[in-house]
Specification:
11 helices, five-stranded mixed beta sheet, alpha/beta
Length: about 350
């Protein structure tokens, strides 16, 4: 049974509170909405306090070409990824830092050769290291990527895999897009990277109460491509963010979650750790209501949302890293979850096991 060895995270140096950001957003959107004051309340009700951006705030006051935005993405994504990987590997003994495969998840920029190639060279990994670039998973990418890394190590128990999730959501900002989706996005999305090393059971030794993989799950809601994703235009990536996502949590994601647990012989009452992607306040609240669990069950997700915003794919790994700082008991089960474009849900069932 494969297990998780370490989680590392990193964010850009530019950090701003909601109060810092609001004047810029109001200026950009004021002419488009007569009720701008009402719409700006989302900066307070969304429970986000501060966020990290790839570029200084004044960079966002003017429109940039797609190529300019993508260059900013490439540099910031590389820098953040390297720091996240370093944070991850520093938690391991030197003898346990070699990996056999690199999985890279992103949806907010384009690189060819991919970031996987740049990371292999920067980390001085063998030229034969397997590469798995994964693009387009959006917010579900953290759970989906981790499932794929675990599946790899399940198939090859003598190997280790490095997963890197990195998003520079702010570099996709469309200055001339005055849609409500874009306005909501300015109150929520942010930038960051996370790295995870997972190991096959013959490739490493667990230390203490370790996260062991049980099963993964991915499902698509039919005919739902308009719910979440990107519309690609001349200026780059325009966010698609339908307001009915919380409703879909109730009507579709929760039943899918319960069915996944049942298929793995697990009841909701067995889940001690809820490691959920904090897509936004309303999404977390919808899960609380649909699963009939107390708000405290998502306390770490709310904390990450407040301190970092929604960084898309790496955010759930920030939640996981924080969860690992708290006590966990042998045999306790946990559930990772995230929603993404498609419209999709990704789930991962795990168990804490002693050495």
């Amino acid at each position: 049974m494969p297990f998780l060895e370490a989680v590392g995270t990193a964010v850009p140096a530019n950090v701003y509170t909601q109060k810092d950001i609001m004047p810029l957003v109001r200026k950009i959107f004021a002419d488009a909405f007569k009720d701008i004051d009402r719409l700006m309340k989302v900066f307070g009700t969304g429970l986000v306090h501060e966020r990290h951006f790839a570029m200084p705030l004044d960079w966002y006051t003017v429109e940039h070409s797609f190529s300019e935005k993508n260059r900013c993405f490439q540099q910031a994504a590389y820098d953040c990824s390297i720091r996240a990987v370093e944070d991850c590997l520093e938690q391991l003994p030197a003898s346990s830092r070699q990996v056999d495969a690199v999985f890279v998840v992103t949806s907010t920029g384009i690189m060819t050769p991919g970031l996987d190639v740049a990371l292999i060279e920067a980390l001085d990994l063998p030229a034969t290291t397997e590469r798995y670039p994964l693009w387009g998973y959006g917010c579900a990418g953290g759970v989906s990527g981790l499932n794929k890394a675990f599946t790899y190590c399940e198939r090859y128990p003598e190997r280790k895999a490095l997963l890197v999730c990195v998003e520079m959501c702010s570099t996709t900002f469309q200055h001339d897009d005055t849609s409500k989706s874009n306005l909501v996005g300015t109150s929520l999305f942010a930038d960051g990277a996370a790295a995870v090393v997972v190991s096959g059971d013959q490739a490493g030794k667990s230390d203490g109460n370790t996260l062991y993989y049980i099963s993964g799950f991915q499902s698509l809601l039919p005919h739902s491509q308009e719910i979440m994703g990107w519309e690609i235009k001349e200026g780059g990536l325009h966010v698609i963010f339908a307001p009915k996502i919380p409703e879909l949590v109730h009507s579709w994601a929760v039943p899918e979650t319960k069915a996944f647990l049942t298929a793995n012989g697990t009841e909701l009452e067995d889940i001690v750790s809820f490691v959920s992607h904090p897509g936004g306040r309303k999404v977390l609240e919808a899960y609380e209501e649909g699963l009939s669990v107390p708000k405290q069950a998502f306390a770490i997700a709310y904390d990450v949302l407040a301190r970092f915003g929604n960084m898309s794919s790496p955010t759930v790994l920030f939640v996981l890293k924080e969860r690992m700082k708290y006590p966990r008991k042998h045999g306790e089960k946990g559930l990772m979850s995230a929603l993404g474009p498609g419209f999709s849900t990704d789930l991962l069932l795990f168990e804490w096991k002693g050495a």
